[in-house]
Amino acid sequence: MKYIWQGEKWPAFRYNLTGIQDQILSFTEKTGRVDGLLCALPDSIKTEAIIDLMVTEAVKSSEIEGEMLSRPDVMSSIKNNLGLNPQPKRVGDRRAEGIAELMVCIRNDFARQLSRKMLFEWHSLLMMGTPRVKAGAWRSHSEPMLIVSGSIGSEEVHYEAPPSKQVPGEMKRFVEWFNNTAPGAGDEIYFAPVRSAIAHLYFESIHPFEDGNGRIGRALSEKVLSQGLGRPALLSLSRSIDADRAGYYDGLKKAQRSEDITDWVEWFVQMLLNAQKQAETEIEFTLKKTKLFDRIKNQLNERQIKVVRRMLKEGPSGFDGGMTAKKYMAIAKATKPTATRDLQDLVTKEVLIPLGGGRSTHYQVNI
To answer: Where does a domain end: 286, 308, 325?
Structure first.
């Protein structure tokens, strides 16, 4: 056997969960905490937090495949699809429109059974703005589907997927497996992170489309998690994968050459846990920001509000080097005396914390 699909027991995956019981439990605990944090947010802020994670997933999933999308374009497209733009903004990039609509479909239809039609619809959305690819259809070319790297003439073949003529049958079996292992089904896989890992590997091993397989595979992993949670998953799988692309490709390569996929499942579950931790940190930060602005409501002038919002836009770590009088002057368009006075007032009101001293004095948000 050279590749996993050539094995006699394909697609009967063998794995051992002994080494990741703690990670599976921790993932469950983290999802519960995220639910609790979300419930504490006002509805409008909650919606923004959800959209931010959807945008991050869309942008990062495309970036992994070498496709750079504008975050504002993706965000506008998602808001358009959710009906959150009173006057829908026209987006020039059809690719951004397509993946944004796909993100909304994944979220809205997570409970629906998977079908060939659904996969074709997803692929058609993903290929918007990519006319060279036959959208909404399995690959049909006669040449081998190879996953390669390296320059022309010195390519390294990492994997060869099943021939195109086998794809319809393989995908029929995949869809049946996907639905039969869902919550409440006859062959249910009880741990959603484990099912998510297997679904991704299984789909990527078939590689049924001409292009877009990685992005569709990650969408399927998210669908699995949402079905397991009974609500749309709130995390960015692709951002976590992007942080360890080498581990991702190496894990796939090894798993696709073995009938025992334990190492792959362990890596993928840890990646999901990392993604959930990151989502928890972001939502917790959003909650802290909300509480801060509730506390200082009507206490700050427009300059101060502008600067504090700008600082918080950088995330929990804030500005590199903190806020300084010079940065304040640039952001608020203020004179040095005004900047000094405003900063001291923000310290007095416990909005900022001063660090250092003298000319090296800088400030962090007290959050």
So the answer is: 286
Q: Give CA–CA dist 45/309, Å, rounded.
A: 14
Q: In whole angstroms, what is the distance from residue 155 CA to residue 138 CA?
A: 25
pTM recorded for the entire structure: 0.90
Domain-embedded: residue 16: yes
> Best-predicted range by mean pLDDT among 160-174, 285-299, 316-330?
160-174
Range of the domain at 188: 4-286
Query: For residues 223-235, b (16+ Cβ closer than 10 Å) or e, as one string?
Result: bbbbbbbeebbbb
| 354-361 average pLDDT score | 86
Instruction: State both tokens at 263.
Output: 């190492």
Rounded to whole angstroms, the Cα distance separating 206 from 5 reads 8
What are the tens digits of pLDDT across the range 100-144? 999 999 999 999 999 999 999 999 999 998 888 999 999 999 999
In a 13 Å sphere around the CA of 164, the CA atoms on its Cβ side amount to 12
Quick: pLDDT tens for 8-31.
999 999 999 999 999 999 999 999
N residues, the chain: 367
H-type alpha helices, the chain? 21-39, 43-64, 71-82, 94-108, 116-126, 167-180, 192-206, 213-229, 237-242, 245-255, 262-295, 302-313, 325-332, 336-348
Q: Is residue 291, in this structure, part of any structural domain at all? A: no
Q: Let me know the angle formed at the C-alpha of 67 by 62 and 72, rounded to the nearest 5 degrees.
A: 70
Q: How many domains does the chain have?
A: 2
Across the range 195-211, mean pLDDT stands at 98
In a domain, 328, yes or no: yes
Q: Are residues 276 and 304 in the same domain?
A: no
CB atoms under 10 Å from CB of 32, counted, come to 11
